[in-house]
Design brief:
Helix content is 17%, strand content 34%. By secondary structure, the chain is of the alpha+beta class.
Length: 86
């Protein structure tokens, strides 16, 4: 999949459990399952984001999908775009 030179997240919707429908600036979208990446997060300060209600509190800031006021968790937009998050 070719990634446009400039790509941003412009909208995201929680679907179910740890799945989010992410819309990109080139009018494509991806249904992304964050279960595995979040399962690998072991730092105690980030455990709260695994709770269903907290997980749903993501935001879009500067074209990125983020969790937390200070961007506690963020994945590269390119990974979201190709649905290959780590």
């Amino acid at each position: 999949m070719n990634i446009p030179e400039i790509i941003e997240v412009f909208k995201a919707e929680h679907i179910e459990a740890m799945k989010v429908l992410v819309y990109f600036s080139d009018v494509t979208n991806q249904r992304i399952d964050f279960s595995e990446p979040f399962a690998s997060i072991s730092a105690p300060a980030y455990q709260k984001w695994k709770e269903p209600k907290k997980f749903q509190q993501f935001a879009i800031e500067n074209g990125n999908l983020v969790w937390g006021k200070d961007w506690d968790i963020i994945f590269p937009v390119e990974q979201l775009y190709t649905n290959k998050i780590k």
